[in-house]
Amino acid sequence: MTATIGHFLQNLCGEYSNQKQAFENPPLFAHIFLRYKPIEHLQPGSILLEQTYAVDPKHPYRLRVIRAEELTSGIIKLWNHTFKEPDRFSSATFDQDCREKIREEDLILLDHCHYQVRQLDDGFHGELEPGCRCIVRRDGKETYLVSSFHLQGDELSTLDRGHDPQTHDRCWGSIAGKFHFQRISHWAENIPETWL
After folding, report:
1. Can you give the pLDDT at residue 72?
2. Coiled coil located at which positions?
């Protein structure tokens, strides 16, 4: 792995909450936890991503494995994977035994749903690869995902929206702008030294 990826993962890994935003604007923003935990026994750069609502912390509504790879100097690609059986690994973020059972064959690569990340003066900026080809089925309808994030220090902002493939109108996602998360736990110490 490269120094660029190591630096990115050290900045990323941890637990984040948008509690302040959710409490100030409860009709517009749910209280959500984002968690990024290294999966040491998989390929270098493999991170477990969990998203849960604060009201239901033991049942993630999104569970992914992202894998960081530097394609060209300074540009990181985050390969995005889902689980064949996500319920088997719903406790993996905090349960090491469960996490150690994750195997490559448990994962499904999500075509066209990978991120490109660049480090700029104000932190790391990530965007879904262009092309409007990351298809998300929501409420019985196919939409394409437009997604971005900005990581600076202990602050992480994200914006995910689904659009109609024909009209390009927004079908779902935040109507009030970005979600703003604050890191509440650092997990960089869980990154294997061989990754850095």
Report:
1. 83
2. none
DSSP string, 79-118: EEEEESSGGGGTTTTT-HHHHTT--GGGEEE-TT--EEEE
CA–CA separation, 56 and 60 (whole Å): 8
Amino acid identity at 13: C
| Structural domains of the chain sorted by starting position, each given as residue range(s) with its CATH number in brackets | 3-186 (2.40.128.590)
Query: Would you say how long the chain is, in residues?
Result: 196
**Nearest-5° angle of CA 64, CA 11, CA 9?**
50
- Please determine, for residue 196, whether its predicted confidence score (pLDDT) is greater than 90: no
Report d(CA 172, CA 131) in Å as an integer.
Answer: 19
Residue 135 CA from chain centroid, whole number: 16
Beta carbons within 10 angstroms of residue 10's beta carbon: 16
Q: Helices then strands (H, E): number in the chain?
A: 3, 13
How far apart are the C-alpha atoms of 25 and 127, rounded to whole Å?
26
What's the pLDDT tens digit per position in 107-135? 999 999 999 999 999 999 999 999 999 99
